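TL;DR need structure tokens for one chain.
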Amino acid sequence: MKDLNGEDWTKVQALFDELIDLKPEERDKRLRRSKVSPDLLAHVTSLLDAASSDGIFEMSPPDLSLPDPATGYSSLAAGEEIGAFTIDRLIGRGGMGEVYLAHRTSTDFEQRVALKMLRAEAAEQGGLFDRERRVLARLEHRGIARLIDGGIGPDGRPYMAMEYVEGEPIDAWCRRTGADLDTRLRLFREICDAVGYAHANLVIHRDLKPSNILIDTAGRVRLLDFGIARLLDDSAAAPMATQAILTPDYAAPEQLGGGTATVAADVYALGVILFELVTGAGPWHREGASVPSIIRRVLHEDPPLPSKTADRVGAPIASGRIAGDLDAIILKAMRRSPQERYRGAIDLADDLRRHQELRPVQARAGSTRYMVGRFVRRYRWAVTASAAAIVAILVGAGGIAWQARQTAIERDVALDEARRSDAINRMLTVMFRDTAETDAGADATVKQMLDKTAERLVGSLDNSARSATLITTLSDLYVNLEDAAGADVLLRRALARGIGGNDAVATAEIKLRLASSAAAMNKSDDMAPLLDAADAVFRTDPARFRTERLEVIGGRAQLARRGGDYDSAIRLLADAMPEADRVYVENHRDLLTLYNNLLVYMVEANRLDAMPAVFAQADAALKRTGLEKSTQGLAIMQLKGIRLLKLDEVARAEVIFERVAAQRKSVFGPSAGLAADLGALGRAKLALGKFDEARRVLAEARPIATEYVGQGALSTLVIGLGLAEAMAETGDVTSADKVVGEVAPLVTAIAKPGLPHAMLARTQAIVRLKQGRLDEASAALDRSEAIIRAMGPAGAANLKGFPPIRARIASAR
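>> reply
TL;DR here they are.
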């Protein structure tokens, strides 16, 4: 038969589709009446013969989730022991093996497994079975059902015991739950993460499909069945040996054509799965279509546009939400040429993440109109007011001038980054040289290394911008360790020595960081002049210093908050959020820090009802970026507990504080954040009357806070007062009085009366009550309540704590 062109194949396809479902005698009559050429007729006849034969693709792939409904055949009986496991029942049967639910025979602990055993009649496929065991043995990922054990059964057949996953295929789960688009894309990205892990471990799955991807009872993706997987470093694996077991709906063209399956084959299958998840239908399968016709379409046709398919089949997701990015992403993953697909599963997932974040996707790279469209859609509220300016930028001389300006900005930023990279290299060199020269050597802590390096650098640097970058880089490391006190000392010494004095921008950077450390050290009077001086420099070039100006706004909001002007503090941050979303598009941690600060101000201002909306935005950002257990993620979780504490849901708050403190301690160790976690936990235990537990927790928190934020910092003072109250409540009035005596001078040194003054007076009231000095207790409580009432709405949540103490004083008289 001669080769056919595209028009010929269209005619062949049309005639094949017309004939495939007819009875043989009717089909023959129609063929005889056909007016197509002999060559085309020969191709049609060949396809029809293939469809009628007992070939490898004749039937749908076996469903391993259910026993054979026709026979119920099982080669192992319930109660039979295979290795360390006892058979419960057959749960699936495929072309190569049987899968049983089994449990570990040992009574030491309970463990259910999916035990897979090679079928007796499939003995010639023992090599594939062994290969699957080798594949699974090298994979340990939360999204992949893991291998637990393996061996040889009494009859000589090999078996393997895998983690048993209770779940539902991803497509069925999405249908049953009515999952929205974001949920489907999130789950699909989890699939990509698991597949990407397998690829990183040199494993290609080669049979990805919804029935091999379960959603477990916890809502997590679990990838199963590496039965025809191939090790990339396995030169003995013959690609044709397992072709008969492929599922043609999801197989890449090169697999069906007899070529070698690479990572690109899994990417193709992922594209098909994503197609089904958003449209509810496969790209190749049509009502009544035979497997040979599916194979022909895969080999010779391009897949249909997903959004058009969605229109035709009544998809679970509106076609308008698929059109554009998702169309492009899916079709890029499914391109016939492996070289034109995504390089791997992780690249595919990253492009989906860009789509969800309303950023340009790689699948549509190169279209100026598209790039501008994405910008406008993402920032539609901000863009509306400046549409005319955007038009001017995009055409004519205005566009050229703008481009030149951007080039200059990018050049300056690149120079800054190069300077910073050089600073990091120099600083690390000094740090490790210092450590090697000390007796501590390898046992030195990071803080000891930083302190030693800071001492040496401050004494040796000049007043150049390069030297200033070394200082700001080192101060950032202190901040990352939540050691504000260390950063504050370093920056003040650097300014006093004139480091960076030859460069206005470098000096402004030091002052901006010093304003931040001053806030953490409760040195509010220092903040305004530092912020003003820094902002005067950054205002000279707003386009270049967008990030720095946002940091100045954050500092001014902090200053307003410390002055009790919560309206201004909240307004400053809320107004800055659109700009922050643009500036921090690749810097998720700084964006989350802004969310955290906004939530802190809201909880302090007692705007508890408005917080859930901000929590929702912050949670979406955390989930999108995978930073739930970062310092910012833990801080936001802690704030959820503080809000509950203020709403008198103390038991729920305690659970959150326990979890946050445990996670932060295990990941980050002692830090300012851990001190705050323990302080909040101690407060919750005080409110629940768990005074011994409160004392233990707050006693642990106080030295950590003193070390990392300083003795006079607000958080340290609050923790100290809570500890004194717990001591008094447990009967140790002497120790309580001593702690109050240590804290009181530091609180009274704060000029403007506020929450710390109110807490001091309240703690004094508790101590005097326990001492039996009831008049003094009553007077102290009056002082505390007066301060709280003067705070207005910000102090309202604290008022409900006074009546119980007054009642205790009254009952003691």
